[in-house]
Design a protein that fits this description.
Layout: E1 7-24, E2 29-38, E3 41-50, H1 51-60, H2 65-77, E4 84-87, H3 88-92, E5 96-109, H4 114-119, E6 123-131, H5 134-161, H6 166-172, H7 178-194
Parallel strand pairs: 3-6
Antiparallel strand pairs: 1-2, 1-4, 1-5, 2-3, 5-6
Length: 195
């Protein structure tokens, strides 16, 4: 198999994706067309990963794992053309749901940085996938939220340092809402105590 070099940037974590199609070629990488679960619902995304990560993903979905594995094995054994596509939506009637997995995602970036702009947050490299329980996935989501709030408060403090007035600093840091401002303060304080 041919190895391709890709650098990645802008890390993200997700706990559920759906894969409708997988594209196989003669490289060590797979391209998956599917969806990523976001706070707003399912968003169409493309994913690139390697066989090791796919193997971990397959082990984590017990209910459809065998059917998915058989579809992949059959295509690999009888590859007539390159690239070859496996259409799970056509074969199984729906996209394959990979949930209760912590996905470490990164946006692809070409040396000049052009790919990241081209993909428009619709393409990610799956660096790692590790099975998690529902409780662990929930805790990771809360932790991610706390980190984002803490960063917003840090941004607010930065605006104050630049001599913005209180209201403008809160507005610029997206903390105009009193409840969000209070939560951000406590998230920042908690992060500072844990350092």
């Amino acid at each position: 198999m041919r190895k391709v070099s890709v650098t990645t940037a802008a890390q993200l974590e997700a706990t559920a994706i759906k894969v409708g199609q997988i594209i196989l070629d003669d490289s060590h990488y797979l391209t998956c067309w599917g969806y990523m679960q976001t706070a707003e619902g399912w968003r169409k995304c493309d994913f690139v990963t390697n066989y090791d990560v796919l193997n971990t993903m397959l082990r984590a979905i017990e209910d459809k794992s065998e059917a998915v594995q058989m579809a992949i094995v059959q295509k690999l054994e009888h590859m007539e053309q390159i690239p070859e596509i496996i259409d799970f939506e056509a074969q199984l009637g729906e996209a394959v749901l990979f949930d209760n997995i912590a996905f470490s995602l990164e946006r692809p970036e070409f040396n000049g940085g052009d790919w990241a702009d081209y993909t428009n947050d619709d393409c990610y490299y799956i660096r790692r996938a590790e099975p998690v329980t529902r409780e662990e996935a929930y805790a990771r989501g809360v932790e991610h939220c706390m980190q984002a709030l803490g960063k917003s408060y840090e941004l607010y403090l930065g605006y104050l340092e630049l001599e913005f007035d209180e209201d403008s600093a809160r507005q610029q840091a997206d903390l105009a809402d009193d409840m969000k401002y209070t939560l951000a303060y406590y998230a920042y304080r908690q992060a500072s105590e844990n350092k």
